[in-house]
Amino acid sequence: MNAKDILNKFGFHAEDEPISIYAFSPVYRVTQPGGEYIIKKTQSPMLKANRLMAYTTSLKESGIDVVVPVSMTTDNPMAIDGAMYVVYPFIEGSTYSGLDSEIQEAGKLLGRIHALSSNENKFNLSHYDVYDFNEKEAEDGIQKINQNSSAYDIEISPKLEDRLMQAVHNQEDLNQAALPHVATPYDYKANNLIYTPDPYLIDPDNAGWVPRIFDLALVLLLFHNELETAPDQPFTSRQWKLFLTGYEESVVLSPKEKSYWPKAIEHVFLDEVMWLMADTPEDWHNSAQRKLFEKLVQLLMNVEEYDFM
After folding, report:
1. Measured between alpha carbons, how far apart are the two ends of the chain, in Å?
2. pLDDT digits (tens, 9 = 90+) for 222-267
3. Which residues form the Aminoglycoside phosphotransferase domain (predicted)?
4. Model pTM greater than 0.85?
5. How far apart are CA 300 and CA 209, in angstroms?
6. How far from 273 is each of 145, 223, 225, 253, 295, CA to CA, in Å?
7. How far apart are the C-alpha atoms of 241 and 234, rounded to whole Å?
8. Rounded-to-integer distance, Cα 97 and Cα 93, Å
9. Which residue has the higher pLDDT, 25 or 173?
10. Residue 259 CA to chain centroid, in angstroms?
11. Residues ≥6 apart with Cβ < 8 Å to 287
């Protein structure tokens, strides 16, 4: 189904075929007499989509700046051609640029989101359960990363393989650790925030029930990914402390979480960063993305610099 048909399903009219504003997934910005909107894919099937919307609506009602489905005469979200689509309002504002104030405010917003989570998965969000990597997958990932990096004369630390193997071996320990979980967007990155001037979460569609420190590890590693206006490296240790300054206004991590923090960073690197560096050779064409990948490996080799206060 083409984009015009998707818009028509929601009662929108488009003269020309809309072009996605996001390279990796269909996301359409629509201007209509009633305002501006974003149409994008969301969680599927309908049951998961409705659970997600119940969660984000709860956040909105609690004072969190987050998009929720626009009230329409059609169903929203809606099943279209085997996928689920949702219409959100378009949020006016500025994109993140790496300012200290932006980092601290982003930490504050995530802290408020985590603090609102109950101790139980009351919205029945998808439960994080990725603890089944094997050594062969890690070896293949390292091989692809080395192939991608060598094309640009970049030498990846040989210690990366040791760290990823260590992460493979630590999976069961993390799985059995009974770490505190939270309902969270679990894609909390700069490209999913618009500053109005306070940060406004514009893409909560990956929300799940996730170990709290895994969500923080994802922020540490990939907050600057896929955004031209962001720095071409992950947080520095100083910037990480700024983020935590905002975050810890609302959340106090447990001693267990702090003790498992290095393992959590390694695990999230294995789960989220390894495939990004291995399976997206086109990203290596971008010099900023190459630098980000290099710096991510350096971060992994120096996790002690990114501890909690």
Report:
1. 51
2. 999 989 999 999 999 999 999 999 999 999 999 999 999 999 999 9
3. 26-234
4. yes
5. 25
6. 11, 12, 10, 24, 12
7. 13
8. 12
9. 173
10. 23
11. 232
Instruction: For Cα atoms 242, 248, 253, give the angle at the middle one, nearest 5 degrees.
Output: 125
Indicate the class that CATH gives domain 100-306. Answer: alpha beta
pLDDT of residue 1: 66
Element (H, E) at 242: helix 237-247
Judged against a pLDDT cut of 70, whether residue 196 lies above it is answered with yes
Q: From 3.40.50.620, 1.10.357.10, 3.40.50.300, 3.30.200.20, which CATH number describes the 3-89 domain? A: 3.30.200.20
Distance CA 149, CA 143 (A): 10
**17-26 long-range contacts, Cβ below 8 Å, gap at least 24?**
24/226
Taking residues 80-109, report their average pLDDT.
97
Long-range contacts (CB closer than 8 Å, 24 or more residues apart) made by 22-25: 24/226
Measured CA to CA, the distance from residue 107 to residue 101 in angstroms comes to 10
C-alpha to C-alpha distance for 29 and 9, rounded to whole angstroms? 15
Kindly indicate the confidence band of residue 22, based on its pLDDT and cuts at 50, 70 and 90: confident
Task: Give the domain ranges of the chain.
Answer: 3-89, 100-306
